[in-house]
Design a protein that fits this description.
- It is built from 5 helices and 5 strands.
- 37% of the residues are buried.
- The protein is an alpha/beta fold.
């Protein structure tokens, strides 16, 4: 799979805050890689500034946060602010993990492009991220 322009999507995946469990985000990263994306996994306990610095250095299309600890709203707000400060308005932010249905709309209203709660199928997640990466 590739983007509409024939290039491979570039995606950063990160675990913000104090989350210590990263099996799910690694599965997502492997699925995206197997579908043709270039995936950069930053690892655990990343700050918004670290994520944005990596996004700038790697020239990514999508930043994906994986959050299981309940800090998804605050982490997303901080990351969106850091992206704005770094003039990364063209980089889409997606969030996955333990996201209550009531927070999905809230995250989208804040500017998160898509939300992938626990239980989202891998095939659906991959196709949606490729579609997001293809948007101009």
């Amino acid at each position: 799979m590739s983007k509409a322009d024939g290039t491979r999507p570039r995606v950063i995946l990160a675990k913000p805050g104090l989350d210590g469990h990263d099996r799910g985000v690694k599965v997502v990263g492997m699925a995206l890689r197997d579908a043709g994306a270039e995936v950069i996994y930053l690892g655990l306990q990343q700050t918004p500034k670290q994520i944005v610095a990596a996004a700038v250095a790697e020239d990514v299309d999508v930043i994906g946060l994986s959050v299981l600890s309940g800090v998804h709203v605050d982490a997303s707000r901080q990351l969106l602010a850091a992206c704005k400060e770094a003039h990364l308005g063209d980089v889409a932010i997606v969030v996955g993990g333990t996201i209550p249905p009531s927070d999905v709309v809230r995250l989208r209203e804040m500017g998160v492009r898509d939300v992938f709660p626990v239980g989202t199928s891998i095939d659906d997640l991959v196709s949606r991220i490729f579609a997001i990466a293809s948007e101009d």
